[in-house]
């Protein structure tokens, strides 16, 4: 089966996580992604563990389905090759500090001059314009300055980083959306354009109700652990072997939970009889529920909850997610054979499309694996390729 | 200026957050989104606070730039109208429980029969196939079962929900990516397709390095607060009026932090002289840094860090994000005039495109605001529209 983006040509000069995540999603959907890396060294993320036979698991996760070449963008001969690649490409993605590509003569205007159909996407911490556009950011800085850290964490505890690099990944997804929208627009106009993604913007864009709670009511949302501002009990509770999330969104569910706990006395207990009272006495209530729930394994607890019609779910640890039969049935953990690392298991593609496969076609490239192939496709002669290699341009 | 997705026709029968977030992003990019709501009641989220003159801020955030109609999908006359709308549409998005739309005769095959070019996207908790596909989920259940909760939260503390409904929003973004990729494919094949998004899958897809840490090294990643598994100090520290994130990614930065603290004795202190030692003694080190940092306001602290070349950023609270001059300069907080609510400020569109505006063109609809207009565009006579209204189909 063909893939949705088959035929789309993407030139990826981005590094580490946010850009490579975007091009990973596009490659998973079938785009031909050429990843450009520094000769002799490669993407910084090649040095990030864990390692399998010396190959970075971090790099292999993010760069599957891509072809890899080396190219020195700091030297004029390398910049000339990049222009040839930009003539070939539909899309270029970069995540250098603002102004870096332009400084190399590889800014949007430079490349639009050789390929007006090129879509040129940049991801940076704070974007291409605005008073902070020169500031550098990485994941945690985006999570901090976008407001997300201030509303994540235990009640009364410090602001807390989301446990995955959401500052990077979320910006990568918005870049992917921008790139695909620009392709839609190009079908109509015949022209490419510049896309400017700021990691801080993208975090601010996912604050959802937190913004109007402030702009309408003047509340400053803060940290609530896993609990809910308006509904109790709605939280993570202890099992003997882990944790389970239990949600009582209304009075009927609360009564069913009391029945499940064999504590129907609580239904008429003045401290807990309505949601507002439960919210007021939540610490006591949480202790009561934890005392009950921790007598069961998570599996037993879920069965009791289900029997009684109380919504709940196990908090799965990463090993449990990797082994989850449902996740496996949906091809969300994929074993990939890598020529050096051997077989490794990495997350799959969550965009399931009836007319497009969700398979992973190839492992991440070893450094410079496709340099000869790609340059030959550009029409470079063997002599020219040899000369570029000798000069360490590629 | 035109917008990237101008001309794209989108039929949105989704409710609350995950589906409406996807169609919000598509509407912000210029798609003509018709939101379908239950007659007399509307989307459940119309009842979610905060309220401005009785209008839900939650609803108004997610449904700006859309037109709204009412339609009873449970009755055959309403199903017939939906089929007419499906003939008009390029894309349909729904987030009912698996099988609900098919039960109404509005499944993918039903609608593909009237419009083979239709792209039909579904978002559910666990997807359309697999052993758990019948299970119901909401945001917290996706965060729990996707593994994210298990790696978010304080060290030693319980699994913690991300403070925004990432289980919903993240699935919405992958749905948007799937829809746009299917449009790209349709330009080539002339045919639509079915897209199946599972909220659990989408969380598993953003676990990044946590997966290979387990599948390669056998580590089960757990909660680290805001700190880093391999780098110390890298955490949130207290200021007198808030918190600041400080990151020492290498020895040189650590030495600069010691200088900033006027504690160059720490550079040669055996407990802290190398990263591995600092990681071992992180509680003591955190206390030392907090004692120093809390003497300053966040603003003062950032100035000291910057002078000394130490990466840092303020943890902005939601009110600070809303007021941030940079966020404002990038049109990321937008004042929208609503006919009932008055002027409210909501988050803007983070996909900045040079050939496409990032303006918000219209407020969220009041219930049924565009029913007459949309049905007239379908070619329905005034009599037919009146009859549908009298029968409470619309």
Automatic annotation (TrEMBL), chains A, B:
Listed Pfam families: CoA_transf_3
InterPro entries hit by this protein: CoA-transferase_III_domain (IPR050483), CoA-Trfase_fam_III (IPR003673), CoA-Trfase_III_dom3_sf (IPR044855), CoA-Trfase_III_dom_1_sf (IPR023606)
SUPFAM superfamilies, sorted: CoA-transferase family III (CaiB/BaiF) (SSF89796)
Keywords noted in UniProt: Transferase
Name of this chain's protein: CaiB/BaiF CoA-transferase family protein
Organism of derivation: Anaeroselena agilis
Lineage summary: Bacteria, Bacillati, Bacillota, Negativicutes, Acetonemataceae
